[in-house]
Each structure stands twice: as structure tokens, then as C-alpha cells.
Amino acid sequence: MTAIRILPDPQALAEAAARHIVERAHAATRERGRFSIALSGGSTPRDLHLKLSSAPLVDQVDWDRVHVWFGDERCVPPDDERSNFRMADETLLSKVPIPPQQLHRMRGELPPEDAAADYERQLHEFFGEEPPSLDLILLGMGDNGHTASLFPGLKAVREQHRWVMAEYVAEVSMWRLTLTPLVLNLAREDLFLVAGPAKAHMLRQVLEGPYAPDERPAQVIRPAVGEVFWMVDAAAAGELAAPPG
Ligand code: 6PG
């Protein structure tokens, strides 16, 4: 099931997304005793992280029940300014009392294929032999339709066996690590956060255009059981033909 909610601006989007995540954390902790969330990179999640790590929301989460994973990572050391872990650490992880052993980092400092195998091992160790179903996977969308590090035309977009892949992305001139559609589509909820006018044209194509995941990888996110929830700001929704509500 796909749902979309349009918020007036990026700050309202960050606030609404943070409150939604707190609710999902409460539900997961109630039902399963823990909350496994995969963070995304880029710039959009920064404000969301800052809301989650500040009062009042920071006091509403049972942080010692939270396990943090990553949907994708750049193949750089964790202190590199391009690192998704570094951004998450600066805006959220260093500000909340999550037990260190519950921070499951993609080790971008390793050779890419080793890093992918290492992360798949981490997932197996935690979730067991079956492909994992995380409670919530945060996703962004590039203006070229990529999500996580599933970029147009790349092999990872079609991967249905491996859980984690490393692939060189010529478009950004770097190796990337990414959860594959197999794992992304097993999440109980895939939560897209999209903001800004630059995303409006692609958002319309992704939500209202023909299914073409090789061109628009964000369309590959179609969980069989879980939900896809798009939280977008009015600028990003500016070209949608039929905004809901
Ligand atoms: C990354 C992200 C990527 C991001 C989109 C949107 O590693 O860059 O995981 O998929 O979500 O590129 O990025 P912005 O939020 O900066 O627009």
C-alpha cells in the first residue's frame, strides 16, 4: 500500500516525519521488543535527525531498544565528509543514548566488495538466515530517480538474491554500498522523504508515470507486504496531477 502526505515546507516535513518515526518505534518496541531502522544519506534527513535528537521527541524514544542500520553508504571512511554515517553521527547518533553495539555501520573504509559482504554478515548475525525485514527503512530520492544507492541503469536495481551490493556509480564517480531491492522490499515500512522543487518533475514521474525502475529506481520500492509512505513538501509535490486530500 502506498500513501502520500504533503507538508507545507521542509521544517514541517522534518517534524511530521520525526513524529511518525517515534510512533513506529513505539509500535515496534511494543510488538517485538525492538525497533530496527535503516537511515538514508543525503541532506534531507539532517533536519529529521535534529528533530529526533532534540526535546521533546528525544525523550519519547526508548533508545536502548533501537537498532540503527543504513540503507546505503559511500565507500569512504566514516570520518569522510561524504560519509552517510558521519552525517547521521553528527546530527543524531552522537546525541542519543543508543548502545554502541546497536549501531550497525556499513564499513565504507573496506574494499567495496568486502564491505558489502561484511554488512550482509552483520545482517545475517542479527536477523538470521532469512532475508531481513526491518521495521522502517528511510529513503530519499534523487532528481534522477535514484533511491538508496540504486542508480539508473545499474545492476543493483534488479538484484533479488544478494542483500547488500557494492557497485561503482559513474554518475557520482564513486563506489557505493546499498541494500538491494530484496531487502528494501521486505521492510514493514519504506518511508520516503522528498523535499524541494528540484524533485518535483521526477516525483511526478515516479508516482504517476509508467513503471520503469531501470530509469527511475525509486519505483522498484514496492514491498509485497509492507507499506510505502511518501512524506513530501509542497514544493516537491508541485507537479503532482492529483495531490491527495
Ligand atoms: C545518498 C542517499 C541518497 C539520497 C538521495 C537524496 O547516499 O546520497 O542515500 O539516496 O537519499 O540522493 O538526497 P538529498 O536528500 O540530498 O536530496
Structural write-up:
The chain has 245 residues and is of the alpha/beta class. The chain has one domain (2-233): Rossmann fold (3-Layer(aba) Sandwich). The protein is built from six helices and nine strands, in the order βαβαββααβββαβαβ. The protein has helices at residues 10-32, 45-52, 84-91, 112-127, 181-184, 200-208, and strands at 2-7, 35-39, 66-70, 72-74, 136-139, 164-169, 174-179, 189-194, 227-233. The strands form two sheets. A six-stranded parallel sheet has the order 1-9-8-5-2-3. It is globular, with a radius of gyration of 17 Å. The model has no long low-confidence stretch (mean pLDDT 97). 6-phosphogluconic acid (6PG) binds at residues 40-44, 72, 84, 140-142, 146-149.
